[in-house]
């Protein structure tokens, strides 16, 4: 909002007003990690450990194969999605 000066002419003509400050919307906190959620995920990870593909990716990261690890994870995730799509298509037929 432009700064107003008490003048009757010019680009910023008008009287001074206070900008309305609204409360932040509850929907804007979507995706923020809460303490409770972080705690629960840490407990579950501690009890269950990592999945096989996660351990393989960590090994690749340890030997500085960042790009390879990223490709590996993407391939793993996409293969699950593609398998689900094939299964849905087979069920539809």
From TrEMBL:
<dbReference type="InterPro" id="IPR000509">
    <property type="entry name" value="Ribosomal_eL36"/>
</dbReference>
<dbReference type="GO" id="GO:0005840">
    <property type="term" value="C:ribosome"/>
</dbReference>
<dbReference type="GO" id="GO:1990904">
    <property type="term" value="C:ribonucleoprotein complex"/>
</dbReference>
<keyword id="KW-0687">Ribonucleoprotein</keyword>
<dbReference type="Pfam" id="PF01158">
    <property type="entry name" value="Ribosomal_L36e"/>
</dbReference>
<dbReference type="InterPro" id="IPR038097">
    <property type="entry name" value="Ribosomal_eL36_sf"/>
</dbReference>
<comment type="function">
    <text>Component of the large ribosomal subunit. The ribosome is a large ribonucleoprotein complex responsible for the synthesis of proteins in the cell.</text>
</comment>
<keyword id="KW-0689">Ribosomal protein</keyword>
<comment type="subunit">
    <text>Component of the large ribosomal subunit.</text>
</comment>
<dbReference type="GO" id="GO:0003735">
    <property type="term" value="F:structural constituent of ribosome"/>
</dbReference>
<protein>
    <recommendedName>
        <fullName>Large ribosomal subunit protein eL36</fullName>
    </recommendedName>
</protein>
<dbReference type="GO" id="GO:0006412">
    <property type="term" value="P:translation"/>
</dbReference>
<comment type="similarity">
    <text>Belongs to the eukaryotic ribosomal protein eL36 family.</text>
</comment>
């Amino acid at each position: 909002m432009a700064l107003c000066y008490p003048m009757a002419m010019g680009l910023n003509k008008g009287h001074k007003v206070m900008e309305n400050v609204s409360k932040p919307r509850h929907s804007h906190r979507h995706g923020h990690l809460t303490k409770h959620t972080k705690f629960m995920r840490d407990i579950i990870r501690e009890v269950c450990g990592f999945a096989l593909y996660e351990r393989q990716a960590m090994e690749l990261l340890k030997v500085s194969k960042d790009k390879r690890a990223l490709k590996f994870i993407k391939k793993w995730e996409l293969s699950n999605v593609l398998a689900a799509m094939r299964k849905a298509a087979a069920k539809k037929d």
